User: Which sequence fits this backbone?
């Protein structure tokens, strides 16, 4: 790898990052820790790096020359191998002082963007961390959080999963600040109007000001599918995985076994073996396009094969749907609960069906676009009441699009909330 190219990139980025306009996000970082930011492509991982760099410079904790930022999707360094990553420090050292893993006069702060493109990157990351460099890493593949990589990194990094903007961050972008008791004034009308856009087009900040959001989201989806899934995993049956993603979107609210998914895809005219289908689902999840939740009442073996699967952003899901409202509502609730509770989130299906169940929090949630219809209302309420009788619950909720009241039934209190308020609690 030509060190002159590396030097040019280092200087370019030192200047460019100063001028990047940041939509600040509320994230707290430990002052001396190393971080791996991981999540969906375009969710804002690189911009969190930029935000932190600008903070370091503004607070005089670092100078511009202290920054060594490399984006590994830069075509000028696309051929670099893990064993050659030390050239980054060598090039920096020639510019600013003698720097290596064993001998250094000046230590840069390392910002390594989309490093998952380099096979074996984690060994270099551990070496620089062991040499007491501060290191920040981003990646768009959940394999970066695998047990094997964590073993190599040896506890030297803190992992943070980065999601597209929350609704609260979306409001902040639009200059809406929620003060105490905001819901009792005129602000709810403005909040609800803004929510309508967020509901359909999701939380990718780059799309917020675009007129043609759907085209941008479709382009992003194609990039994720082709770059992060098909090419990275050397998938030859491109049509099969496209059909799979479409079928998962269409059945977003329904639990599905691996066998059923396999049959649905095969019935579309493309044949895929069951084991290959398992791999495809893992590829979609590793790219953070989808995530799954298991049935709390299933046996351990069934928890892995029978799941409800959701998309990581409503804008991406909406690409696939006609009359999408019901699916988008449940998907948005799933995203929020997944962000908050992670692996503690389940659904419940044993003599009673409840959309979301968090036993650790004694919480059960139904997602229903509207419960004004008596049949729908009775179905949702009855399910929660039945679950409350067999599980120790103290929070029962029905999340709707725009309905709010309390329901008292059989000694159980159920709070009905509009999703846009529910997201802002």
Assistant:
């Amino acid at each position: 790898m030509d060190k002159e190219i590396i030097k040019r990139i280092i200087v370019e980025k030192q200047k460019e990052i100063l001028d990047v306009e940041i939509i600040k996000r509320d994230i707290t970082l430990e002052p001396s820790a190393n971080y791996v930011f991981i999540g969906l492509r375009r969710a804002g991982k690189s911009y969190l790096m930029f935000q932190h760099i600008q903070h370091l410079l503004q607070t005089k904790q670092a100078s511009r020359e202290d920054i060594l930022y490399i984006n590994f999707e830069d075509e000028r360094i696309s051929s670099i191998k893990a064993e050659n990553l030390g050239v980054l420090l060598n090039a920096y050292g020639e510019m600013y002082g003698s720097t290596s893993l064993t001998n250094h006069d000046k230590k840069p702060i390392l910002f390594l963007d989309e490093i998952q493109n380099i096979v074996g990157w984690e060994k270099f990351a551990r070496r620089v961390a062991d040499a007491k460099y501060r290191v920040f890493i981003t990646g768009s593949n959940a394999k970066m959080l695998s047990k094997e990589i964590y073993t190599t990194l040896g506890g030297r990094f803190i992992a943070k999963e980065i999601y597209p903007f929350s609704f609260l961050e979306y409001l902040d972008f639009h200059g809406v600040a929620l003060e105490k008791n905001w819901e009792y004034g005129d602000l709810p009308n403005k909040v609800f109007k803004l929510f309508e856009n967020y509901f359909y087009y999701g939380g990718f900040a780059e799309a917020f000001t675009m007129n043609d959001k759907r085209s941008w989201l479709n382009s992003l989806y194609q990039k994720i599918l082709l770059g992060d899934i098909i090419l990275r995993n050397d998938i030859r049956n491109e049509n099969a995985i496209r059909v799979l993603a479409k079928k998962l979107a269409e059945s977003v609210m329904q639990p599905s076994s691996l066998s059923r998914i396999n049959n649905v895809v095969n019935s579309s005219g493309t044949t895929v073996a069951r084991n290959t289908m398992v791999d495809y689902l893992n590829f979609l999840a590793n790219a953070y396009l989808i995530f799954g939740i298991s049935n709390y009442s299933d046996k351990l073996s069934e928890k892995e094969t029978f799941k409800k699967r959701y998309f990581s952003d409503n804008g991406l899901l909406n690409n696939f749907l006609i009359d999408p409202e019901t699916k988008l509502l449940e998907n948005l609730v799933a995203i929020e609960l997944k962000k908050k509770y992670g692996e503690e989130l389940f659904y419940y299906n044993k003599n009673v069906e409840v959309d979301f169940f968090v036993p650790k929090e004694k919480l059960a949630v139904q997602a229903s676009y509207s419960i004004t219809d008596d049949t729908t209302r009775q179905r949702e309420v009855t399910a929660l009441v039945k679950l409350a009788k067999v599980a120790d619950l103290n929070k029962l909720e029905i999340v709707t699009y725009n309905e709010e009241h309390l329901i008292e039934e059989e000694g159980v209190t159920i709070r009905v909330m509009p999703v846009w308020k529910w997201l802002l609690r």
Observations:
- DSSP finds 16 helices and 14 strands in the chain.
